[in-house]
Amino acid sequence: MPKEKIEQEMEDLEEIKEETAEKKAESKEKTIMDLPGVGAATATKMAEAGYSTLLSVAVATVGEIVELTGVSEAVGRKMIQAARSSLDMGFVSGEEVLRKRALVERISTGSKVFDNILGGGVETRAITEIFAEFGSGKTQIGHLLAVNTQLMKNEKNPVAVYIDTENTFRPERIVQLAKGAGLEPQQVLKQIKVARAYNSDHQLLLAERVEELIKSQGLNVKLVVVDSLTSHFRAEFIGRGTLAERQQKLNKHMHALLRLADTYNLSVYVTNQVMARPDVFFGDPTQAIGGHVVAHSSTYRVYLRKGKKGSRVAKLIDSPSMPDAECNFIIETDGIKDVQ
Question: Please, what is the average pLDDT of the chain?
């Protein structure tokens, strides 16, 4: 790429960042306290439930606001309308969307071929889901992404949040991967915030608490790992009679993660369990848990399986811009390597 073109792209990126900073500064002028019907007590209730910004109120439903604050439906509707009118939530041109896409960053998996099928790595402002049977390497990739977050060039003190639902997070593995990436292990461990989720409600709460880490503690969170997404939901909701409730709860969780990714320009990586379909007689009977709710909410979906001679095969089966493709790689002590 010519030097002049690179310099021009860097200038354009700086302009976009300045415009974004200016818009954020303008939005700080108004808070939820400026909304009709919101007093100190109501604002406290809303903040505790995750509705601490005008944007969070603007995208909420009337039912959620009424249930949360106890206000009437008319007042709740006025609150939402006021929040929406104070923000620029109308249509924008495709050109402006393209300019905003320039702010999207990617976290490398360590494998060039794996990065290539994802369009350069795990994307920010998106949910990347990997589903596979046990022992395929889903958790290994989660650990690796948490380490490689520290290699993001344009970020200062990037933080990875790891929501562990199956007791699979291992700091010893982080140390190995950090050494493989040429990083200081102790410093990498300090930049990873880990929380163990003991049930589905706790899992949802931890996802909401990520916003508190960003706002209250000022952490530069660039990655959220949920390993695994469906473990607690699968254990707690048993039988067809609970399917609708499970899917509604899972849908809420996925949309909360997606809103988090889009609002704060961070990556969300989720692992998913699988089941075997007994009605499939030919081909691979493996199917991801979570049904259409998880499938539609995930921006990128990757099916991971074991290959020959200890390798792994990653197959991209859904993406908004990349074609279906697959690649081979090997998981080693110091990271992921391409198959030679």
Answer: 89
> Which residues constitute the domain of residue 127?
104-338
**Residue 199 sits in a domain of what CATH number?**
3.40.50.300
Angstrom distance (rounded) from CA 267 to CA 107: 8
Give the other-Cβ count within 10 Å of 275's Cβ: 12
Residue 65 near residue 80 (C-beta atoms within 8 A): yes
> Angle at the Cα of 334 (from 230 to 120), degrees rounded to 5?
65
Rounded to whole angstroms, the Cα distance separating 164 from 123 reads: 21
φ, ψ (nearest 5 deg) of residue 162: -120, 110
pLDDT for 143: 98
79, 57 in Cβ contact below 8 A? yes
CB atoms within 10 A of CB 270: 26
The count of structural domains within the chain is 2
106: nearest Cα among 127, 121, 126, 128: 121
Q: For residue 314, name the pLDDT band (cuts at 50, 70, 90).
A: very high
Lowest mean pLDDT among 59-68, 100-109, 159-168: 59-68
Burial class (CB in 10 A: 0-12, 13-18, 19+), 235: exposed
**Is residue 6 exposed (0-12), middle (13-18) or buried (19+ Cβ within 10 Å)?**
exposed
Could you tell me if 235 and 281 lie in one domain? yes
Cis peptide before 228 (omega within 30 of 0): yes
Residue 196 burial class via C-beta count within 10 angstroms: exposed 0-12, middle 13-18, buried 19 and up: middle
124 and 80 in a common domain: no
pTM over 0.85: no
